[in-house]
Design goal:
Largest sheet: none
Strand content: under 5%
Mean pLDDT: 82
Order of helices and strands: HHHHHHHHHHHHHHH
Structural class: mainly alpha
Radius of gyration: 21 Å
Shape: globular
């Protein structure tokens, strides 16, 4: 089967904004209600552990949803699965407003995550369908800006919602956001995967596609590299309130400023990355940035070992932490650009595995710093650990990148028949 290259389209601001809004639904679904955890415990007469389990359920739903919807979209196109999933998302969000038991909330959060996954995975697939070359990296940089910033800003937005409503109001807001996305996608999103480029063969073909991706080291190694690096951000989001409010005695408003600095750092990194895409390949960017991130994370960990626990060392910690977070803004868009560029014929499945792996590892990594005590040292130690793993994976996949790039250049010189063979999985 011939794998047609995507048409290179002009990157319109309207398209980018709509895809960014679709991408935002996942992070908002995860983190918007964090500030309401104590209220949910009281209202549903349950325990903090059971409420925290609702977040794990959401992450599981997002991971599973990306795997299912991404693969389905390779067979049926992007638009129809997206519209169906957004409809389910709105209905589930409305159902959550009336729950009376934490067990029901947990079950519905799985479904909410599963349906919300469509926006994240299909936005990336649409980018790969519609854009080629530099365009992929530029658009993904804008989308990953949302993925990097939304988890940091969502709890703050949720806290503002609590000023005029309760925790159920948050899910009404999510339902309204889902309706908005459904309307926008219905009116403005055209199908990006024509019938001749869709996968045929049903479930067997879908499983074969995933099997070929999982056994492709250049793909799965890069995906794991990005997922572990994303684990550093998950660790920061989960630990920061304990580190700064309990460890350093910051007020809620003071903590908000620090949280905002982290968001700005991720934002700046992703936007500088977008500016560099036309000049440097994403493989080069990610190599330099992960090396810099490892050095910064090591410095952060060593620094926290010198903090006595009585509030000393606050500013040195912040001054190293913020640039460390900025490196996440470079890695998040670079990895999808790398793995999607060479998997355009199965972009839905590739985007699904990339996204699902990030959430699975995020769910596993997030509790570790809390188990280790929730201190600044625990947070920095986990961040350094996952970035070290990411750096080791980088070293392992770099040779494959070089080999693959040479083979593709040779194919371009050789002619159409060899090009087709080089593009096959």
């Amino acid at each position: 089967m011939t794998h047609h290259a995507p048409a290179v389209e002009r990157i319109g601001i309207g398209v980018v904004l709509m895809l960014a809004a679709l991408t935002a639904i996942g992070p908002l679904t995860i983190d918007l209600y964090l500030a309401a955890f104590p209220e949910i415990v009281t209202d549903l007469a349950t325990t903090p552990a059971k409420v925290q389990l609702t977040m794990t359920a959401t992450l599981a739903g997002l991971a599973l949803g990306q795997l299912i919807i991404g693969s389905v979209s390779d067979s049926f196109g992007r638009r129809r699965p997206l519209l169906i999933a957004l409809t389910v998302y709105v209905l589930v969000s409305l159902a959550i407003i009336g729950v009376g038991q934490v067990e029901t909330l947990t079950a519905l959060r799985v479904l909410q995550g599963l349906s919300g996954a469509a926006g994240m995975v299909l936005s990336l697939a649409v980018v790969r369908d519609r854009f080629g070359g530099i365009g992929i990296g530029k658009v993904i940089s804008r989308l990953m800006l949302v993925v990097g910033v939304a988890p940091i800003l969502a709890p703050t937005i949720g806290a503002q919602i609590l000023r005029f409503g309760d925790w159920r109001t948050m899910f009404a807001v999510l339902a309204g956001f889902g309706v908005l996305l459904l309307v926008l996608a219905s009116v403005f999103l055209k199908e990006s995967l024509p019938p001749e480029r869709r996968r045929r063969g049903g479930v067997r073909a879908a499983l074969a596609s995933y099997r070929s991706l999982i056994t492709d080291w250049s793909f799965i190694g890069a995906v794991l590299m990005g997922a572990f690096y994303m684990g550093a951000m998950f660790t920061y989001v989960a630990s920061s309130t304990f580190v700064f409010q309990e460890g350093f005695g910051l007020t809620a408003s003071e903590f908000g400023y620090i949280f905002g600095a982290g968001a700005l750092a991720v934002t700046a990194g992703s936007q500088v990355n977008g500016a560099l895409v036309g000049r440097l390949r994403p493989e080069r960017i990610v190599t330099v940035v992960i090396a810099a991130g490892w050095v910064l994370a090591l410095g952060l960990f060593v620094l926290t070992l010198t903090v006595s626990g009585d509030g000393q060392g606050f500013w040195p910690l912040v001054l190293v932490l913020v640039p460390t977070l900025s490196t996440v803004g470079f890695v998040l868009p670079s990895v999808p650009a790398i793995v999607l560029e060479s998997n355009g014929h199965r972009a839905g499945s590739a985007a699904a595995l990339n996204g699902a792996m990030g959430f699975v590892l995020g769910a596993l990594i997030t509790p570790i710093s809390g188990i280790l005590g929730g201190t600044a040292t625990a947070m920095a130690g986990v961040m350094f650990g996952v970035i070290t793993i990411s750096a080791m994976l980088l070293l392992a996949v770099r040779r494959g990148w070089s080999t693959e790039r040479v083979s593709r250049v040779d194919a371009l010189v050789a002619g159409p028949e060899v090009q087709e063979e080089a593009l096959r999985p």
